[in-house]
Automatic annotation (TrEMBL):
This is Oxidoreductase. It comes from Segatella copri. It comes from the Bacteria. Signal peptide: none annotated. One of its GO terms (molecular function) is nucleotide binding. PANTHER family: BILIVERDIN REDUCTASE A (PTHR43377). Residues 1-113 form the Gfo/Idh/MocA-like oxidoreductase N-terminal domain. InterPro entries: Gfo/Idh/MocA-like_OxRdtase_N, Gfo/Idh/MocA_Oxidoreductases, NAD(P)-bd_dom_sf. Transmembrane segments: none annotated. Coiled coil: none annotated.
């Protein structure tokens, strides 16, 4: 299979590296910046093009991975579908073009795959499973935060999408984490949020939120989201009469409290955690690999159902709009 990776920044390079593990996949790069193309050609030994149209005229491309900034996704998805390509896209953060591209993908009979990396983590999958198995109502308290300039230390936060109010850092955290939260605890029924700007960062949006969520299942949660915390933070406590879990966001930190023994047990996983330098400790590579595998599986098997999709995401983005307003 011939696959183009569109956008050769840090995420595009990650996708190329993970795709290269599949020996039956031939990879090409797409970027308008000649310097990025040269860097990727030198590092990965793949051919790069300046546009989708140029690549498709030269090679019989079948699929695309879009790793550009979120506000560019809608137009690129449409372009890919019009070139009869299956599409994988990073999270969008906005609903631009959703209805049109969902309809176009169905008309063309093409896969429209939406990244939701945390749904492919063993830790969150285990939390989801145990919450679903619990016979009692549960609540949770979840805090995710990291100081905005530390997200990409190699570049200014004003130079990429998290500096834009429409695709801001807090919104990205919500769009990353709420898919697995609603998968675990159920669709959102009601939200209430307090927010403010507590830093001197050069941004035109609120930098911290305290969000209360009520789910249709009866579960309730407090979700603290911020780009303020100087120490990267990801911690959740899930508690009910028959279930108590805690997780610090890393592969070795999921714990379950056993009521009978009154002891806490660490839940371990067979596969090792792979980490890339420059990212916070709770950003591991395995889930990115798993969602690439899921994309390729859906292309091969039309009956395969991915963990997340555009229809579910549209509902969630509506709720994020409510939270921000």
């Amino acid at each position: 299979m011939k696959v183009i990776v569109i956008g050769l920044g840090s995420m595009g390079k990650r996708r190329i590296r993970l795709l290269s593990e599949h020996k039956d996949v031939e990879i090409y790069g797409i970027d308008t910046q000649e310097q990025r193309c040269k860097e990727v050609e030198d590092k990965f030994g793949i051919k790069c093009f300046a546009s989708i149209d140029e690549a498709c005229k030269v090679e019989p491309v079948e699929a695309a991975i879009i790793s550009t900034s979120p506000l560019s996704h809608a137009a690129i998805i449409k372009d890919c579908l019009n070139h009869n390509l299956h599409v994988f896209t990073e999270i969008n953060l906005v609903q631009d073009g959703y209805d049109e591209n969902i309809a176009l993908a169905k008309k063309k009979g093409k896969v429209l795959f939406l990244s939701s990396t945390f749904l492919y983590r063993k830790e969150t999958q285990t939390i989801i499973e145990k919450v679903h198995e619990a016979k009692c109502p549960v609540n949770y308290i979840y805090h995710v935060g990291q100081y905005l300039p530390d997200w990409h230390p190699w570049e200014s936060y004003n130079n990429y999408f998290i500096g834009n109010p429409r695709t801001n850092g807090c919104r990205e955290i919500m769009a990353i984490d709420l898919p697995w939260i609603v998968t675990a605890f159920g669709p959102i029924k009601k939200v209430c949020a307090m927010k403010s700007k507590n830093t001197q960062l050069n941004i035109d949006y609120d930098d911290n939120y305290l969000i209360m969520l009520e789910h249709e299942t009866g579960a309730k949660g407090v979700f603290a989201v911020d780009v303020v915390a100087r120490k990267p933070y990801r911690h959740i406590d899930v508690y009910g009469e028959e279930l108590q879990l805690s997780w610090n966001g890393t592969a070795d930190s999921l714990n379950e409290y056993h009521i009978e023994t009154k002891k806490e047990e660490n839940i371990t996983f067979d596969d090792a955690s792979e980490h890339v330098d420059g990212y916070a400790a709770f950003i591991t590579e395995n889930p990115y690999r798993e969602e690439i595998n899921a994309y390729l599986k859906q292309i091969a098997d039309s009956n395969y159902k991915p963990a997340w999709n555009f229809e579910k995401d549209k509902v969630l983005l509506d709720w994020i709009d409510v939270i921000e307003k």
